[in-house]
Amino acid sequence: MTKITAAITAVGKYVPENILTNKMLEKLVDTNDDWIITRTGIKERRILKGEGKGTSYMAIKAAEDLIKKKNLDPKEIDLVIVSTATPDMQAAATAVYTATQIGATNAFGFDLEAACSSFLYGMSVASSYIESGRYKKILLIGADKCSSMIDYTDRATCIIFGDGAGAVLFEANEEGLGLQDEYLKSDGVGREFLQVKTGGSLYPTTKDAIDKRENFVFQDGKTVFKNAVFNMADVTVKILERNKLTNNDVTWLAAHQANKRIIEATANRINLNASKVMMNIQKYGNTTSATLPLLLADYEQQLKKGDTIIFAAFGGGFTWGAIYFKWAYN
User: Fold this and answer.
1) Which residues are the active-site residues?
2) Is the pLDDT confidence value at 220 over 80?
3) How many CB atoms lie within 10 A of CB 150?
C-alpha cells in the first residue's frame, strides 16, 4: 500500500499597500535607518489601515489569491486553519469567518496560536489530517495584523513588526513528497519575556491596563534574541542529523523572518551558503505567523519539484521547531 504524505500544492499571499519605512519611523521614535538595518535587516514593513480591517481581511485576500492561481473550487476545501497571534476577536474564530467569506462552505475551521511558530505548528497539524486520509484539501493560512498590538512610541518593538498573510494548500501525495519529518518544541518559561499582558483571561482589559500600555507587545529583546539564536539553530541541526542530511542535501532554508542576524546564525550553524537562504525580512519585517508562507509565495517561481526545504521558527511562549519538507511541484 502506497504511503500517503502531505504536500503543498499551491500558495497565495497578501501584503497591505501601506508601507512604513525606517525613515518614517525616525519621525516617531528615537532611532535611525542605519541602526535598524544593522540590527535587524529590516528596511520597511507593511501596515494594514482602514476601519473594520483585521487579520481576517488579509487571510481572505491571501486565500483568494491561492484559489485564483490554483483555479480551485473553494467548496472542495475540507478544513481551513488560520495560524495567528492576532485573531479578529476572542471566542469567534478568525478561520471560521475566513472560510465562509471565501466560499469554503463545506469546510470546518479553527485558529492555531503559537506566536511566531504558529504556521510551523500548523504545517504539522494540516499534514497529520491529510495523512489520516479523512481530509483531502486543507487550507493553511498564516496571517497577523501585528500593528494592532504594537506601541509606536516603543522603539524596541515598533521597528520589528509588520502586517501580512500567506496561504498554502495541503493535499495528499503518493510520490513521497511533502512533509518528511518534524522536530517541535516549547517551554513555558518564555512567557514572561514576550507577551501582550492584558486582554486575556488572566488580565482582562481595564482602563488602568490601557493607561499603562499593557495592551501592547512587551519584549525582553536580549533574552528573546539569545533563545531564538540558540534554539532555532539547534532544532535545524537536529532535524538534519536525525534524517542523515548534510548541508549539501538542503536546497533551501526557510527560517522565520524575525531578525536577519538570527536567520544568518541558523544558516551558519549548518554551514549553508547564503544563496540557499530565503530572505524577505527587508521588505516586510516580522509578520509573525505570515513569515513562512510569504517566503514560499515570494520564492515560488524558484522552487523545483523535489527541492529539500528546511523550515525553522522561534516564537513567544517559548515555541520553536524545524520541519524537513520536499517540494511537490515546479
Assistant:
1) 116, 256, 286
2) yes
3) 20
